[in-house]
Give the backbone structure.
Amino acid sequence: CGFCAGYGQSPQSGGVSVRTNNRNFQGRCGTKDAKVYLVSPEVAVATALTGKLTDPRDLHMAYPEIPPPAKFHVDDTMVIRPGHRDVEVFRGPNIGTPPHLTPLPRELRAGVAIKVGDKVTTDHIIPTGSVSRYRSNIPKSSDFIFVNVDPLFVQRCKDNKKKETGSVIVAGLSYGQGSSREHAALCPAYLGVRAVIAKSIERIHMANLVNFGIMPLTFNDPQDYDKIAVGDELFIADTETALNRSVITVKNITQGGGFEVSFRLTPRQIAIIRAGGLLNYVGKQR
């Protein structure tokens, strides 16, 4: 998780550093205004030796050759194999019970709780850092969903729950890119999010949405994105029938009219969404 979440030494304010991590975003290193450059291990070593960004070829030294070992040593003595099930599991006060998600309702009424643009990452959805201490407590973690994007998102979801309606996230291109953290789907599901309607949704995040009973829907006409506003009430008349079709019609009750969305799901994924998530689906199979 260090590479994805950005754990590590935090540079000084405005400081410049190089990292061999696989991802980069504002504040990822722990300092919001730091300037971080992603580089190869060779460039990182050359830069550390000279104190400035350096092409390792400018060091005028032969590239070291390190032959791989004939056999890798494996030590699994620290792994304890599971024994009998009659054991007590001690949980700290910060660890909550898994939330119970309900099946997808036959008629879906849901308010648009947030409308975001393109390339929203899982870090936009739920930030890391101090928030990570609550990852075993879903109700607490859910308080931080979109906190740096729209602090009113959580309250809108809670207001929709009081009205006994669901919530919808509307997004642009490449929604859910970045790390695969499941809390970016689990926490919205806990808050009552029933669908994400976007111009496109990233593959791994789409799978997480399905696992927590959230419909991943994409606009058939991307221009329909511009016709939706936060607070609009959307309606899908018959989700049971709709998920058997390749195209779903969504009505905008607030503004009038409607638009079409589609999805790319297997029959098993559709069954998971109908059940309200993977845990419910597996439970029904027993």
